[in-house]
Amino acid sequence: MHKWICMACDYIYDPEAGDPDSGIPPGTPFEDIPADWICPNCGVGKDLFEPYG
Amino acid sequence: MNPRRIRDNIWAVGTIDWDRRLFDDLIPLPEGTSYNSYLLKGSEKTALIDGVDPAVEQVLLDNLRSLGVEKLDYIISNHAEQDHSGAIPAVLEAWPESMVVTNPRCAGMLTDHLHLPEERFILKDDGETLSLGDWTLQFFLAPFVHWPETQFTWLTEEKILFTGDFLGSHQATSDLFVRDEAGTLFGAKRYYAEIMMPYRKKFPKYLDRIDGLAPEIIATTHGPIYDRPASILEAYREWSSDEVKNEAVVAYVSMHDTTAKMAGHLINALIDRGVRVKVHNLTGVDVGELAIDLVDAATVVWASPIVGVGPHPNAAYAAFLANVLKPKVKYTAVIGSYGWGGKMVEQLLGLLKNLKVEVLDPVMVKGFPREEDFASLDGLADTIAGKHRAEGLL
Ligand SMILES: [Fe+2]
Ligand SMILES: [Fe+2]
Ligand SMILES: [Zn+2]
Prior knowledge:
CATH superfamily of the largest domain in chain B: Ribonuclease Z/Hydroxyacylglutathione hydrolase-like
Bound molecules: fe (ii) ion, zinc ion
Strand order of the largest sheet of chain B: 1-2-7-8-9-10-11
Distance between the termini of chain A: 11 Å
Number of strands of chain A: 3
Shape of chain A: globular
Largest sheet of chain B: 7 strands, mixed
Distance between the termini of chain B: 48 Å
Oligomer: heterodimer
Number of domains of chain B: 2
Number of helices of chain A: 0
Strand content of chain A: 15-25%
């Protein structure tokens, strides 16, 4: 599964870890995250993430 | 400002703002600034690259008319921010056949900010081109220099790159091309520090792409044009790298001269140990200069008295600003004096969560510092010099 990076703050979404604090369980591919999810670090939307690595 | 010829059929048509003294209601502009806009008269099509601040849009319109622009085909928007896009509605109105050419994200933001009609856009994605007849424009996405929609426009045949705000300089000058290189670089550093620095990790990739194009000229939206772009590219390489310098910023504020005495002692102790020191009194500070000094520094020391039970608000303001600007500083420490207690150290450090710093032991003194307190400041200077030495900076 691919990692994604927040273009605004450089937070890296790692699908292995998910984002449990925002209700995204470990193992969730970025594509499957709900559209209203925001960067847990800086608050911008999914559209400002790009594939990382 | 009247139109100025860059090359045959290529004109600077923007404006110089000699009087502007504050940008974004935040950063002082001792040298003023400019809003650059460029006109390309191709053999078939005429294109304008970026607009100007809406306050001076009439100058842009007059410049285009004085150059005999009867038909304007394209307005290329490299950046949706109002100091460059604000004049676009007036241009669209004056040249009703003209179309805004930009990437989809920028089109969305122009629509958000200026309520431009959808039918006036031509969308171009990364790497796509636009023909002006004898010339070809190519567009490169460069997100977050310094908004998400930013892009570069490459005039292929002339090897001219239009980079929007990226590499720009806050400098009002009559020089069309950079002739006071030190002045332009300082204005560029002011600009970088305020708006580019938070996104610096993306820049090496963009600089590689620019190097690959090998532009003869780089024309930005602020400041004079680079006809010898090597030095600004080199400066951006250095500023955006992870390399820090043997510099400590000491940012202080003092109510009864007690914290100032502590800061003064630390400053001297650092100088004695070979550390370069950049000092800012946070009362009445030029935050642009503070930001400039944060670009390269390895260490920042915050010196503040406790006001009530927390930091002096001027120190909190500066720390908040530093947290937004995300400099590459590696070490930080808090020093200060207090009368009865408080949580200043925790509160100031809590404002710096974005900084990837090692926090050095604070030196907090009840009342006026005694001999052992000055010794603690010497100890802090030893620690800072030791860290710089371990980094190979000293
Ligand atoms: Fe901008
Ligand atoms: Fe700008
Ligand atoms: Zn983010």
